[in-house]
Amino acid sequence: MARCPDFKQRMSAVSRFYIVVLPWIIASCVSVGTPEQRREKAKSLSRDLQQLAPSVSRAEADQVASTAIEESAKMSLDFKPICLPWMNNGLVNTGLRKRGLCYQWRDDLFPHLHRLNLKTLDLHLTSSRRATFLEHNGIVVTAKGQRFEDGIILDPWRNGGRLWWGTLKQDKSHPWKPLPYELTPMVLRPLLMPELYPSR
Fold first, then answer.
1. Contact between residue 178 and residue 149 where contact means Cβ atoms under 8 Å apart
2. In 3D, which of 130, 129, 80, 87 has the Cα closest to residue 105?
């Protein structure tokens, strides 16, 4: 009968694997594309936003699309995410990255969109499977007064700064729900609850 490798040999093999692979994983940061590629993506997102309703302003759709894509790309330079988002979370949770969890991407992107002072589009904070191990966070954009369920989800975390978007119906892997008002992140309360949290 063949002998199994002893414990030390197996641990040595595992250690060598991580010594070789882990630095490569950490170094494999996401590319956010060229400025031209991002401009084309912004045009595509703007078209999708305009299709939410006839009342959506083309200028506002252009602003939201450009802002969401460019700010997500800038965050990628700060967060330095790797190609696998769940592994990036592991790096943050173990202290190898300072920031880059999904709620941090959302909370950093939201103020840039909020400052556009939109008249024909609404912004909604959203979460999927909140308070579970599989929790995810994003931003939903709807036409003014439109149902949340008919909106478009903006997810800068999923592709590490290469903004992902799609309708809630298309994003079947995430049961998105509006974030309850009382759970508004503290960092966003001066924007969304100015009467309760006035800016200093």
1. no
2. 80
pLDDT band at 80 (very low <50, low <70, confident <90, very high): confident
Alpha-carbon distance of 79 to 75, in angstroms, equals 6
Burial letters 40-75, b for 16+ CB under 10 A, else e: ebbeebbeebbebeeebbeebbbbbbbbbbbbbbeb
> How far apart, in Å, are the Cα atoms of 154 and each of 102, 124, 199?
11, 10, 26
Give the pLDDT score at 88.
76
pLDDT band at residue 94 using 50, 70 and 90 as cut-offs: confident
* Amino acid letter, residue 169: K
Q: What is the 3-state secondary structure (H, E, C) of the chain?
A: CCCCCCHHHHHHHHHHHHHHHHHHHHHCECCCCCHHHHHHHHHHHHHHHHCCCCCCCHHHHHHHHHHHHHHHHHHHHHHCCECCHHHHHHHHHCCCCCCCCHHHHHHHHHHHHHCCCCCCEEEEEEEECCCCCCCEEEEEEEECCCCHHHCEEEECCCCCCCCEEEECCCCCCCCEEECCHHHCCHHHHHHHCCCCCCCC
